[in-house]
Amino acid sequence: MVQAAIIMCFLALLGRCAWIALVRGPDLAVRAVQQRSVDVVVSRIRGQILDRNMQPLAGAPDAPASSWPNRATVVVFPSLVSGQDDALRRLDELIPGPGVRAGTPRAVNLAPAAYAEVAAMADAVRGIVPLSVPSRYLGLASHVVGDIEVSYDWALGGSGSSGGDAREVVRLMCDARGQEIPGLGARRLTLGQPAGWVRLAIDSGLQARAEQALDSRAPGMAGAAVVMDPWTGQVLAMASRPSYDPDDVARSLTQPNAPMINRAVRPYYPGSIFKVVIAAAALSTGVRSPDSVYTDTGSIEAGGHIFRCHALERGGHGDITFRDALIYSRNTSFIDAAAELGAQQILDFGRALGISDPDVASAVRLPGSLAGVLPHSRTRLGPADLANLALGQSLVQITPLEAAVMMCAVANGGIACRPELVLEACGPDGRRITRAAAKPREPLEASGDRVLRADVAAALREMLAQVASRGTASAALGGMDVAGKTGTAQTGRVDGSGSPVFNAWFVGFAPVESPQLVVAVLIEGPESGAAAAAPVFGDICEYAAGAGRGRAR
Predict the structure, then answer these.
(1) What is the CATH classification number for the domain harbouring 385?
(2) Which domain holds residue 427?
(3) What is this structure's pTM?
C-alpha cells in the first residue's frame, strides 16, 4: 500500500516536471531571461514602405549601409554609469535628459558631433553603449511615410499601426540587484515578428526633385508641392516644407514654422487659381465664351465696395476678351462674370472639381488631411462676398492636393479624378492585395464621372497654355510645353518683420497636348505666384520630361 502511494507520488511529480519542461518551459525560459535582463528598444522594425518601382522609402533593414542613412544613438543604463567625474559631467552636457546617472534605461538620438565625442569616451565610462542604428527613413516624403506607420490594414482602408512587433533592442544581462553580469555585458538583438509592406504610387525620383525644387527656389519658406497623374489619379510626389526628422519627433515639435504639418493636405486661400473654377462655370453655362469682351476701367463696384486693379491710374485695360482675362488674371472681368453666374453655379462647379470634397481628403489616408472650404449651398452671398469668392479670397480655401485634383479634370478632358496614394500591400501572412495598377492605361483614358464637357476642358487647356507662353507665368515658364494658372492670395497675416504674408500658387500640367503630369505648388510668404511658385513647377516638369517620367510608369 505504502509502496503504491510512493509510486503514485513519484508519477505525479514526474508528470509535473514534464508539464513544466515541455509545456511551460519556453515561457518560463523567456521569463527567466527577462528577470535577469534589461532591454532598451533602439528601433521598431515596422513594415517596409516602397515607392511605385519597389524602391524603399522607409524601413529597409537589408539595404547596404552605404546607401541608407544611419542615426547616431546612445543607450544609457543609469544605475551602471560610472567613470571619472569630469567625463560624467561632459556626458550630462552631451546627452539630453535628466543626466546619465538619473532616470530609467533609455536610448537617445544624438547629433553627429555629440555622438563622436560620446563614442570616444565610451571605453572610459561604464553604462553607456553608443550605436550607429539604421534609420527607418530614407529622408524622402517624410510627411507621407512619417506621419503614419503605414500598415496592411491602413492600405485597405483601415487606420491601424503597421502590424508586427519586431524591434531591435540592446539587452543588458544583470543579476538580481540589477548589476551587470561580468562577461555577458550588452548585446544587440532583434525580437518579434516583422510586418509586411506597402507600395505607394510615389515615384522617388519625382519626389526628390519636388523637394529639391522647393528647397532651391523657396529656401527657408513654408510650402508644398503635389504631383499627380491626371489619367489614373495616382499621387507621384507629395512634398511639404519645412520638413522634419521622423526619427526625432520630439525635436521637431519645438522647431518654428510647424514642420510636422503636411501643408500638401491643409487648406489655404487660393487667390487667382480659383479663376479656373469661375472660367469652367462661365464656359459651361454659356455666360462667357473665350472671345467674350469685357471693358475694364480699372475698378468694379460690388455691394458698395470698390475692387481695383493695378491699371486703375491709367484707366484700366480697356476691352479684353475672357481668354485674355484668364491669361493675364484680370480681376474685374472675373468679378463681372461671377455676378452673372451667381453663387450656386460657382459652388456647384467648385465641388464637382474636388474642392471641399471630404472624399478627396480621405482618399490619401493621411492623418491631418483636411478638406478645403466653400460656403454652404444655402448660404446667402452678397455682391461683395461673390466678388471675393471670384478672386479666391475670404470665403474659399483649397488644399494643394485639391488644386491638383481640380487641374486633373481640366487636363484629362473633364473627368473627375480621385487621388490614389496606395497601389498595393502585403500583410505579415504574405497575403497580397492590389488596389491600383502602377502603369497607366493605354491609350490615355481617364475613368470616373464627367464634371466638364470635353469642349470646355479643351478651351481651358488652350487658355491655360497661353498663361505660360504669353501671360502671367511667361517670365518663368516661357518656351516650355506647359500650361497652368498663377495665384496670389492675401492671408491677413504678417511675418516677424511686419510684412504681409501671401499664398503664392501655381497649378498646371505638362505637356499641353495629351497632358501627362499635373503639379500644384504653394509657397507661403511671397507676393507673386508667378515669381515664387511657377519656377518650382517648371523644375519638376523639366525633370519629368528629361527622366522620361512625364507619365507615370
Answers:
(1) 3.40.710.10
(2) 204-246+262-546
(3) 0.84
